[in-house]
Amino acid sequence: MNNTTTAVFYDGNSSVPQQIVLSLNSFNRTLEFQLANGSTCKWLIQEVTFDKRATGLHLEHGLDVLQHIKIKDAHFIDLIQNFRKANGHIGWYQKLIDLGFATHFGIAVVIMALIGLCYVYIIPWAAEQSVSLIPEEYDNELGTSAWAGNQYFMDVDSEKTKLLNDFAKELKLQNTKKLKFTVVNSNEINAFALPDGSIVVFTGILKEMKNYDELVGLLGHEASHVNNRHSMKMLCRSLSGYLFISVILGDANGIMATIGDNVNSLQSLSFSREFEHQADADGFKILLENKVNPKGMSNLFKRLQQQSYAIPEFLSSHPVTENRIDFIDKMIKDKKFQTVAHPQLERLFVQLKQ
Q1: Does the structure show a pLDDT above 90 at 87?
Q2: Does the reported pTM lie above 0.85?
Q3: In what order do the strands lie in the sheet with 198-202?
Q4: So where are the chain's domains?
Q5: Class of 4-94 per CATH?
Q6: pLDDT digit string (tens) for 92-104?
Q7: Which of the four pLDDT bands, split at 50, 70 and 90, describes residue 139?
Q8: Can you tell me the distance from the alpha carbon of 6 to that of 21, in angstroms, rounded to the nearest whole number?
Q9: Residues contacting residue 4 through CB under 8 Å, at least 6 positions apart
């Protein structure tokens, strides 16, 4: 069956258009037309390039000489497009183009949403999981660099540092690497752990403590951050967007440079609720293993929460929420535990408080 329409033909040699009568021969799968000189042209549809525009359908054909046909007849355009679809001559790109603005907008929204979800959830999760591929020696290098960059601004109390290390030696902290404890003279109510096992405690938070079991709870909590490589995981998570882009571009040097630029902020990384929950649970186990009253952890957190307006430094990296306190109190209620006197811990704690 032949179907015809009028169209404009350009022969590729001159810019003068010719009016033609164009026919679709579905049996031969050709587009056929006759030129002014009487010659007949037959274009195999599979050899024609189709470009659908606002002005109509543009056809191109030929290798050495590229010829053009412009069609404005909407009915004939639909006829050609339906024929091409039925015979598998339309690629996925053209099918996508033909879907229309509303569908394109919907697809764009979905793609942007997927990119957003990937950036916010999947990439950080993948970056965190990749920590297992990073040798722990790198944790040590990062921690050492971070401490070297910050210790010049801190007043280390050598005497109390020795007392705190003696205090920690009395405990089983379930540590996976050697822990190093440092006391810094500062009214700042804060404590933090570095990936190399360095745990820094400020005298400001020691002054807030009422009993040695609170200090055991704090050290157990910070040791758990070290044991679980939370600093490294949070560093990778916070840099995950840049890491993702750098991996795509193959910029390995850029990754290392950016991590290096963020080393000095390790002590102020804000741990996620998940990591704080894990550190609370592991710290609680340390209290039980050492037969120290686990209420010390709960009492310390409650006191810090009550004074949250005055201690932004600690809470910025260790957010104390009602859920965390309730979680600890529930463990105290549900778990069976035994406590014993620790005169050595008591004595060292009193000295640290002086």
Answers
A1: no
A2: no
A3: 180-184, 198-202, 191-193
A4: 4-94, 133-353
A5: mainly beta
A6: 666 666 666 777 7
A7: confident
A8: 5
A9: 21, 22, 23, 24, 76
